[in-house]
Automatic annotation (TrEMBL):
Transmembrane helix among keywords: yes
Entry keywords, A to Z: Cell membrane, Cell shape, Cell wall biogenesis/degradation, Membrane, Peptidoglycan synthesis, Transmembrane, Transmembrane helix
Organism: Bacillus yunxiaonensis
Catalyzed reaction equations: Preferential cleavage: (Ac)2-L-Lys-D-Ala-|-D-Ala. Also transpeptidation of peptidyl-alanyl moieties that are N-acyl substituents of D-alanine
Enzyme Commission designation: 3.4.16.4
Residue span, Penicillin-binding protein dimerisation domain: 61-300
Annotated family: Belongs to the transpeptidase family.
Membrane topology value: Single-pass membrane protein
Transmembrane segments: none
Superkingdom: Bacteria
Protein name: serine-type D-Ala-D-Ala carboxypeptidase
SUPFAM superfamilies assigned to the protein according to its UniProt record, in alphabetical order: beta-lactamase/transpeptidase-like (SSF56601), Penicillin binding protein dimerisation domain (SSF56519)
Pfam families found in the cross-reference section: PBP_dimer, Transpeptidase
InterPro entries attached to this UniProt entry: Beta-lactam/transpept, Beta-lactam/transpept-like, PBP_dimer, PBP_dimer_sf, PCN-bd_Tpept
Length: 709
């Protein structure tokens, strides 16, 4: 081929290749343009939302609190469901936006406005009238601020002070509703549901639900309130729960916040509700909110539905509790009517199983003045938060201390006679001239003071010398308290409730007070300690931890089902008394004589009982120490002498299943039968209810048997 032909062919090939290249470039650009068009026109809004959207922190919503049942499965504390409207404040939320939402809500629901303060109204007036509010600040105010004579806070206060009553009256009823709603919105924490209205009407709930898309941050849910099936009965021990307005207690704020509580969560604030908060609170539902760049919630994802709080089964028999409380109230009224009640304003009963420490009844009543009228209120807490001189009920511990220290021996005879000490009044038993030679069991049966006096002196190594003085060292007090403590007197009982008091030790440095200590008229103890003490004697020397909660159970949706047991509270032996078992059995014999023999001080109350009772009566001379001390002292010039009437016991003596303590302080007459009447009636109530339970179970078994035939 010639050179010219080759050049012509080459020139023809170059344009073709360029055209192919340009065509490929055109196709690429067309593809890019089409793709950009798809992105911008078809999917543009979606991609924009993806760019704008952001995930917020997970929001936790409360679940129903656990229920509380008595030992037989009767509901004591339950939850009442309530239709509720909430508002969740997102981060970056502006007051103007909340105001607009509040205005819309105010058209749909009714809310109370009586709790709005004057300051609330003035702040709201400023928000509604910004231009007029500016006029409240003068040129002088601005000059003072510039000259640093006042600060911003003082400037704002001047503005508030100049808002007149007439201007506040411009706020309409509808304005006040808006203000009430907005105040709740403003008080909420970011990303935490704040209750706007609880227990709404069905109509309000429905209309809000239909308009949620127009009410940013607003939601409808079901909340709860605690329902106490037995009213005020046992309420002081059951405790209380904070409201959503109260939220977390300030003193325990950090404790709850590190456990993932929200600031407006309701928590147990006292006693059982507080002590078992971890179980009762439950696992909150978790919701993840997705917001746009402006903070509006555009999507909600449920991470966890949560779980209701666990249920508690108490050791308390609420039917027994009901009867015991009524008995206390009846006998207090009778004592008042007798004219010998003196300053008596309260009475207590504790009943427990001495074998395992389960509290069966924990009752207290107190007279209070309300609106000029005397009423009886629940004071069950007083069984563990107040203490008194318990009198002769402690004589069992005195004898046991004497045995164990070798000061006396079981069966030892001592002469009960008036004791004369130099410079002091005669110390004697209640019989006056003395009982003569008696043994230790008779001393318990007839409640001899002198036998206990001489036992204490023997422990101190200071035998009685007529007309002499007592040479008693502090060590003897320490020795006697050491043994008393082993029974639960003067030390924590270990009950699973907060704020228990331990009693008060009498002042040191008075040797003669050892004799008063020996008969229960020096140190003070609580009714609960007294019940633990008699239980320790009843069961042969084992100090059992008092228990108020029997089981923790899983929540269940079936009303008749208490739920599966997840934790059972096993009996706890706090200590074995450091004494020979024979010594305790000997005192048990004496306690039985008190109740069942003719000369026993408890025979008048329990002589006809058929359930084999044992126990001890007590009377302590005391000085009035009640709530009206200042008034009484101002009127009389001194605090009057009074009597604390007490009684302890258990039954059956051969195989104890229930022990009790009764304490009635500050009467003017030591012969008033109020403590004995209460003791007999509560023990009768216990055994009557036991018969009914056995009869009911037998009937159920018979019915089941017939059904299966």
């Amino acid at each position: 081929m010639s050179k010219n032909k080759k050049e012509k062919k080459k020139k023809a090939t170059v344009p073709f290749r360029l055209n192919v290249l340009f065509f490929c470039v055109f196709l690429l650009f067309s593809t890019v343009i089409v793709r950009l068009g798809m992105v911008q026109i078809v999917h543009g809004e979606d991609y924009k939302n993806e760019v704008d959207r952001k995930e917020n922190l997970t929001v936790s919503t409360p679940v129903p609190r656990g229920k509380i049942y008595d030992r037989y499965g009767r509901a004591v504390v339950d939850n009442t469901p309530l239709r509720t409207i909430t508002y969740t404040k997102v981060k970056g939320s502006k007051p103007e936006e909340r105001l607009e939402t509040a205005k819309q809500l105010a058209k749909l629901i009714d809310v109370p406005t009586d709790k709005l303060t004057e300051r609330d109204k003035k702040d709201f007036w400023i928000l509604l009238n910004p231009e007029r509010a500016k006029e409240k600040i003068t040129k002088k105010d601005k000059a003072d601020l510039k000259a640093e004579k006042i600060d911003d806070k003082q400037l704002a206060q001047r503005q508030l002070d100049r808002i007149t009553e007439a201007e506040l009256n411009e706020l309409t009823a509808q304005d006040l509703k808006v203000l009430a709603i907005k105040s709740k919105m403003d008080s909420g924490y970011a990303m935490t549901p704040q209750i706007i209205k609880k227990d709404t009407t069905p109509e309000e709930y429905a209309v809000i639900s239909e308009n949620l898309d127009k009410l940013p941050g607003v939601d409808t849910t079901v909340d709860w309130d605690r329902n106490y099936a037995y009213g005020d009965m046992f309420r002081t021990v059951l405790g209380g729960v904070t409201s959503s307005d109260e939220g977390l207690p300030r003193e325990n704020l950090d404790y709850y916040l590190v456990r993932d509580y929200d600031r407006n969560d309701r928590v147990g604030k006292s006693y059982i509700e507080q002590q078992y908060e971890d179980a009762l609170h439950g696992t909150k539902a978790e919701v993840k909110n997705v917001t746009d760049s402006k903070g509006n919630i555009i999507e909600t994802d449920y991470v966890s539905k949560g779980e209701s709080g666990k249920n508690l089964t108490l050791t308390i028999d609420m039917e027994l509790q009901k009867q015991v409380e009524q008995i206390i109230a009846d006998e207090m009224q009778k004592a008042k009517a007798s004219g010998s009640a003196g300053y008596m304003d309260r009475a207590f009963v504790v009943m427990m199983n001495p074998k395992n420490g389960e509290i069966l009844s924990m009752a207290g009543k107190q007279f209070v003045n309300e609106d000029g009228q005397s009423k009886i209120k629940d004071y069950a807490l007083g069984t563990m938060t107040s203490s008194y001189e318990m009198g002769s009920t402690v004589k069992g511990a005195t004898l046991l201390t004497g045995y164990q220290t070798g000061a006396i021996t079981p069966g030892e005879v001592i002469v009960d006679e008036p004791l004369n000490f130099k410079g002091t009044k005669v110390k004697k038993s209640w019989t006056g001239n003395g009982m003569g030679p008696i043994d230790d069991l008779t001393a318990l049966q007839r409640s001899s003071n002198v036998y206990m006096f001489k036992t204490a002196m023997a422990i101190a190594g200071a035998p009685y010398v007529p007309g002499g003085t007592l040479n008693v060292k502090q060590k003897t007090f320490d020795t006697m308290r050491y043994y008393f403590n082993q029974f639960g007197l003067g030390v924590p009982t270990g009950i699973d409730l907060p704020n228990e008091v331990y009693g008060v030790k009498g002042p040191a440095g008075e040797p003669g007070k050892l004799l008063d200590f020996a008969i229960g008229q020096f140190d003070t103890y609580t009714p609960l300690q007294l019940a633990q003490y008699v239980s320790t004697i009843a069961n042969g020397g084992y100090r059992m931890k008092p228990q108020i909660v029997k089981e923790i159970r899983k929540p269940t949706s079936k009303p008749e089902d208490l739920g599966q047991v997840v934790q059972s509270m096993e009996p706890v032996v706090l200590n074995r008394v450091d004494m020979k078992e024979d010594y305790i059995k000997h005192v048990q014999d004496g306690f039985k004589m008190v109740m069942q023999t003719q000369n026993g001080t408890g025979h008048s109350a329990f002589g006809t009982a058929t359930y084999d009772p044992a126990g001890k009566t007590g009377t302590a001379q005391s000085v009035y120490a009640g709530p009206d001390q200042k008034e009484v002292k101002a009127r009389l010039g001194q605090l009057p002498n009074t009597y604390n009437l007490t009684m302890i016991g258990y039954a059956p003596a051969s195989d104890p299943e229930v022990a009790f303590s009764v304490v009635v302080p500050w009467l003017s007459d030591d012969h008033n039968p109020v403590s004995k009447n209460i003791a007999r009636r509560v023990m009768d109530a216990y055994f009557d209810l036991k018969k009914q339970e056995i009869s009911g179970n037998a009937g159920a078994l018979e019915a089941t048997s017939k059904t299966n035939q």
